From TrEMBL:
Record's keyword terms, sorted: Cytoplasm, Exonuclease, Hydrolase, Nuclease
Protein name (record): Exodeoxyribonuclease VII large subunit
Every OB-fold nucleic acid binding domain range: 7-112
Keyword Cytoplasm: yes
A GO CC term assigned to this protein in UniProt: exodeoxyribonuclease VII complex
BP GO annotations: DNA catabolic process
Tagged with keyword Hydrolase: yes
Superkingdom as given in the UniProt entry: Bacteria
One Gene Ontology term of the molecular function aspect: exodeoxyribonuclease VII activity
Entry-linked InterPro entries: Exonuc_VII_L (IPR003753), Exonuc_VII_lsu_C (IPR020579), OB-fold_nuc-bd_dom (IPR025824)
Every Exonuclease VII large subunit C-terminal domain range: 136-285
Pfam families for this protein: Exonuc_VII_L (PF02601), tRNA_anti_2 (PF13742)
Length: 373
């Protein structure tokens, strides 16, 4: 038998005809963005993929031509709050192309940003349900924070503005309170952020330093940038961490799963710094208040003693015979200088002395008259 031989170009042409026959019109495709690169000329090239339980199961190259990309990119970012980036699950409208020279490619001419947001919300709800069923949602609340947390493990990106704001606000506090902060660097956004933060947390847990709390912080970002804080891997790790975990990863409108399982969540790194400064300020105020109460208590006791002394002094002065004599009374003394307390103690002819407040008078007793009882 003779061999059927065709050229590579003919093979590619048949494949092209077959692909175009199977996919004559555009279709909506769901896939994950595994790579994205915008070229200086305005075109955007993407690698789309799909993973299964065993790993990667499909991959294809895609392109958004410049004429479309200049409109699609800002539209997608305005709805989702984030540009097209790796790790996103997207729903795109594609035309399947096959080129004899470049092979299979997908030309994207539309994208549904609501799908990307909705898919993340669905995953978020599944994560919450799983954490609830495993009893992890409130596990952190069973931990106690020291009265004055001093040793703080910080998980953040060292070059992040949020981290710099936190450090400046905490260590330059107006009270002069001193804290120990050790940085455990991690990626704080993107597809690998959850695993990176978990590794940093593990490093803090294995440290020889007995940290009082662990802080996960970054500045705010787009909703899809912060999607890692809704992942089960990170949330379950926070829930089971052996010391209280504080989070500060988003804006006022963002509440992430990690915030829900943490010991406490605040919105910004600066607010997190204020949380610890306020703890010390309350303790400082309490100590000052105790000192004031002690001073008042002792001053009150001294005041009471002074009042009692004044009363005793008044009584003593009131009982002083000289003060009595000043009121017009006299004191009668016998010859021996003994106070005559009764008329019966005197006899006619006795010599007595009458003491006045300003001197004494010598007298003789002429007669004694006793009152009848």
């Amino acid at each position: 038998m003779g061999k059927e031989i065709i050229s590579l170009y003919e093979l590619q042409t048949r494949l092209k005809e077959g692909v175009e026959r199977i996919f004559p019109s555009k279709l909506w495709l769901k896939a994950e963005v595994s790579a994205v690169k915008a070229r200086p000329g305005g075109h955007c090239y993407l690698e789309l993929s799909q993973s299964g339980e065993s790993g990667l199961v499909a991959k294809a190259q895609a392109v958004i031509w410049a004429a479309k990309y200049r409109f699609l990119a800002p539209f997608f970012e305005s709805v989702t709050g984030s540009p097209l980036s790796e790790g996103m699950l997207v729903l795109v409208r594609v035309q399947v192309n096959f080129s004899q020279l470049y092979g299979l490619s997908l030309v994207i001419d539309d994208i549904d940003p609501d799908f990307s947001l909705g898919e993340k919300e669905r995953e978020r709800r599944l994560t919450l349900a799983r954490l609830q069923s495993e009893g992890l949602m409130d596990m952190q609340q069973g931990l106690g924070l020291p009265r004055l947390p001093y040793r703080l493990a910080v998980v953040s990106a060292p070059d992040a503005a949020g981290y710099r704001d936190f450090m400046r606000h905490l260590h330059e506090n107006p009270y002069g309170f001193v804290f120990r902060t050790d940085l455990f660097p991690a990626l704080m956004q993107g597809a690998g952020a959850a695993a990176s933060i978990v590794s940093a947390m593990d490093a803090a847990a294995m440290s020889d330093v007995p940290y009082d709390a662990l802080l996960v912080l970054r500045g705010g970002g787009a909703r899809l940038d912060l999607a890692c804080y809704d992942e089960y891997l990170l949330a379950s790790h926070i829930a089971q961490f052996p010391v209280p975990v504080f989070t500060a990863v988003g804006h006022d409108q963002d509440v992430h799963v990690c915030d829900m399982v943490a010991w406490r969540a605040v919105k910004t790194p600066t607010a997190l710094a204020d949380t610890f400064i306020d703890i010390y300020a309350r303790e400082d105020s309490y100590i000052v208040s105790c000192g004031t109460r002690l001073r008042l208590a002792f001053s009150g006791k001294i005041g009471n003693m002074e009042s009692r002394l004044q009363v005793l002094e008044a009584r003593i002065k009131g009982a002083d015979p000289r003060n009595i004599l000043k009121r017009g009374y006299v004191l009668a003394l016998d010859r021996a200088g003994i106070v005559l307390k009764s008329a019966a103690a005197a006899r006619p002819g006795d010599s007595i002395t009458l003491m006045c407040h300003d001197g004494s008078i010598g007298c003789g007793v002429e007669k004694v008259e006793l009152k009848d009882n």
